[in-house]
């Protein structure tokens, strides 16, 4: 039984370790959190050497959830993608067990009518990886037939459905530049908290006000504690519009769940950052 927590990236201008050499930042982040989203792979497939460096900076139990390239999911919409998919799978191979699940984020235009395409795509994927799908079309959250169709397709492939919970963020009007920017970009979909596998993955977007972020995730503390008692091993990714306090918030979420499930091991203490000196 283990709860992994993490953020959308492993380096940010406001985080501890920001002044470390770039080659050391992931290792420092991994002392704060034990999972990270792989958003960068959506925009470009990294080299194997780059991915090897990620592996050497993290323990085998660390969880990466790399996102499939946009050419696969958004541009070609899961069709005729053998070449870019093969290149992606080859690139991330050095992660080994650290590649917790491959994240298939689909565009908002990917509708229930497109589920057969997803089914064919999942069927052809190698069984050496786990897969997790994020959908954004409103019908997948409001239409019972669409929900059942997607759940059946994912269950047949032993794939998870990743909810991106933005309900706390959209509960009140934005109050900062970062929130105003996120207001126009983040998906507005109903809450979903049903796990399909024994390793659910959740993306949660709070507010730049940490207190409101914590208030908004209380339902997830309860859900996560229940999953752990059921023998599941969830991963929670904590976002805020500016992400300034995201690693500390992720650790706080872990602490709050552990208060409900005392048998859950505590996270290790983060590596201290030595102050820079002139000599």
From TrEMBL:
Pfam families: DUF72
Protein name, per record: Uncharacterized protein YecE (DUF72 family)
Species of the source: Micromonospora taraxaci
Highest taxon in the source lineage: Bacteria
InterPro entries: DUF72, UPF0759_sf
